[in-house]
TrEMBL record:
Transmembrane segments: 307-330, 342-364, 393-414, 447-469, 499-520, 535-554
Signal peptide interval: 1-15
Membrane disposition: Multi-pass membrane protein
Membership in a protein family: Belongs to the G-protein coupled receptor 2 family. Mth subfamily.
Keywords: G-protein coupled receptor, Membrane, Receptor, Signal, Transducer, Transmembrane, Transmembrane helix
Protein name per the record: Uncharacterized protein
GO cellular component: endomembrane system; plasma membrane
MF terms in GO: G protein-coupled peptide receptor activity
Taxonomy, superkingdom: Eukaryota
InterPro entries to which the protein is assigned, alphabetical: Methuselah_N_sf (IPR036272), Mth_GPCR (IPR051384)
Record localization: Endomembrane system
Coiled-coil ranges (or none): none
Length: 600
């Protein structure tokens, strides 16, 4: 226990600042550091340590004597000869535990520090000062009498002393348990005492932020925000997600519990204040964003388990997609329209696989919402046609990429505005990196567009198949002189249709398996069979590049063309025309567009 008893005033017992004999080696905003074996004065990085003195920069005076400074979180006494440090010794004196930096005092209202030009030198009984209580989770504030003393044998890491903004003396004391939260409501603060988020979800020493309960975006969802409270500091959550608006039905109750609606269980969940994997409040500064926000931790052990199985499929798919693109370019297959379309699709899928793999391997560096915006437009790129003329191919590219791009822009606009009813407002990146199943927004802006794109493709594929059948019937009525030319056109149409249907099967299978995965929301509650089924479906979804490589590269025609291109094939291999080359030769004998081209 910390002993606080009535005693003489500190002004009588201790010397004033003007009489302090301590000399600081470096300037006030500097500290000692060893750089490449040389002891130097560098900019101060240990904001939790300071020295109260009027005498500094001893090293720059090239004098001989002793000075004191900070190095790696410790106070040292340095022996100096002609401005050069010859030896050092750790100081055994216990530093004074001040709650705020030297030029600040404590504000019990905001639980933060505020600037004050004059340093309370009569309060500080030691030149060496440690600042704040960064290792304490629960800190209880107490107002002390004007005269007191401190038992110097107590553990000084458990408390700190400072003036408050009204001139009274405050002591902040660590609590060893959560008993105080049974008497008062406790709010959970993301960062340790004296720290806040700077430049993202990184806690740094700021001291002046504290915690604000009233007049914030989350205040309407706190029961009786005017009531007194305590703070649980530093929830230890490494990955947090900000809620800038009320995208989750939640309430912080009078007893400090966090009550929210779970989309996984379709019911309200009560999260106790001792649960450090839930919500927390914190001040955050990043770019133009600055203020107090409600954060949620990423609780993803089940996702990590699932991704451990699918990461290999993502990486292999990306590699094989690039190999497919390179082979098609090498063999000159991009000269026909289908080759161009396949290359476009492979590039789009490669970007998707890179995004998905990067989100697992380097999740901290990627914004969740950006990943969803990149993922969302991948499906409409699947439309494929076979026009040889450049103008029509450009139109198909504008359709495939343009529709996808417009879909992405629409999601970005809707995510950052609130003109839609909440019933269909798309929510992205609050619980997971996708359009969330919290309302009808997922159906309206994800499932319906994907279904429309896939339906349109199926209709066009069926149209092509019907036309090929009609062409075949017409060929049977032609004379022998025209049969070869028309048969060539039919073989060309049939060959291309087969390739298009293969690609359609791949994309349809992927869309179907991805649609099935939307029914899996809470992997933790599943049986072993359900977990295995979800992993299988996700693996199929991530294996699209593997399927494309098998269907379009792993076939005899491509192998023969590669052998011929590399000079490894026999004369017979290099001279024997493939069905496609024979068809292309037949088509070259005719003028104008083929019937298939006119049809589509």
């Amino acid at each position: 226990m910390i002993l606080v008893v009535v005693s003489l005033l500190f002004t009588v017992v201790h010397a004033t600042l003007d009489n302090r004999p301590t000399v600081k080696c470096c300037a006030k905003n500097e500290q000692i550091a060893t750089v490449n074996g040389t002891v130097l004065c560098v900019d101060k990085t240990d904001a939790r340590f300071d020295i109260l003195t009027n005498s500094s920069e001893f090293l720059s005076k090239h004098s001989t004597g002793e000075c004191v400074d900070i190095d790696r979180g410790h106070f040292y006494n340095y022996r100096v000869e002609n401005g050069v440090i010859t030896s050092n010794q750790t100081l055994s004196r216990k530093p004074f535990p001040k709650c705020c930096p030297l030029d600040h005092v404590y504000s019990p209202t905001t639980r933060s520090c505020i600037n004050k030009t004059s340093i309370p030198t009569n309060l500080i009984i030691e030149d060496l000062v440690v600042i704040g209580l960064p290792k304490c989770q629960i800190i209880l504030d107490k107002t002390l009498d004007a005269s007191f003393t401190i038992n110097r044998d107590s553990n000084q890491k458990d408390f700190c002393i400072d003036e408050d903004d009204k001139g009274s003396v405050m002591m902040r004391e660590c609590q060893g348990d959560f008993d105080i939260c049974q008497k008062k409501r406790c709010f959970k603060k993301c960062c340790p005492d004296g720290q806040s988020f700077v430049g993202g979800g990184v806690c740094k020493d700021t001291f002046v932020r504290g915690l604000q309960i009233k007049d914030q975006g989350y205040s309407p969802y706190i029961e009786d925000p005017e009531d007194d409270y305590e703070i649980v500091h530093g929830t230890g959550c490494t990955n947090v997600n900000i809620y800038s608006t009320n995208t989750l039905q939640y309430t912080i109750t009078k007893n400090g519990s966090f009550r929210y609606y779970s989309n996984y269980t379709d019911e309200f969940v009560m999260e106790p204040v001792t649960d450090f994997t839930g919500y927390c409040l914190e001040h955050a500064t990043k770019g133009s964003m600055s203020g107090y926000f409600l954060f949620r931790c990423f609780k993803q052990p089940e996702i990590e388990e699932k991704f451990a199985w699918t990461i290999g499929a993502k990486i292999l798919s990306g590699i094989l997609l690039i190999v497919t693109v390179l082979i098609y370019f090498y063999l000159g297959e991009v000269r026909n329209t289908f080759g161009k379309i396949l290359i476009n699709y492979c590039i789009a899928m490669f970007l998707l696989m890179v995004t998905l793999a990067s989100s697992i391997l380097a999740a901290a560096e990627l914004e969740c919402k950006i990943r969803e915006f990149i993922k969302s437009p991948k499906k409409p790129i699947c439309v494929a046609y076979k026009k040889k003329n450049l103008r029509r191919f450009v139109c198909y590219c504008l359709y495939g990429w343009g529709v996808a791009f417009c879909h992405m822009i629409l999601l970005i606009i809707l995510e950052n505005t609130n003109f839609l009813p909440d019933l269909i407002q798309p929510r992205i990146g609050n619980l997971y990196c996708f359009i969330e199943n919290v309302n009808y927004g997922r159906i309206v802006f994800l499932l319906i567009p994907y279904l429309a794109f896939q339906t349109a493709n199926i209709v066009l594929f069926v149209k092509t198949a019907v036309y090929c059948i009609r062409v075949q019937n017409e060929i049977n009525k032609m004379n022998d002189g025209l049969r070869r030319s028309e048969s060539g056109r039919f073989v060309l149409a049939k060959d291309r249709l087969a390739l298009i249907l293969k690609l359609a099967v791949i994309m349809g299978l992927i869309w179907f398996t991805e649609l099935l995965t939307t029914f899996f929301n809470n992997m933790e509650s599943y049986s072993g069979f359900s977990k295995t089924l979800e992993i299988i479906l996700d693996t199929i979804t991530c294996s699209q590049g593997i399927l494309i490589f098998i269907i379009f590269i792993c076939k005899r025609k491509i192998f023969n063309m590669l052998k011929q291109k590399l000079g490894c094939g026999s004369l017979r291999d290099s001279s024997s025309p493939t069905p496609s080359s024979e068809v292309n030769g037949n088509i070259a004998l005719t003028r104008g567009q083929t019937p298939v081209e006119n049809a589509l």
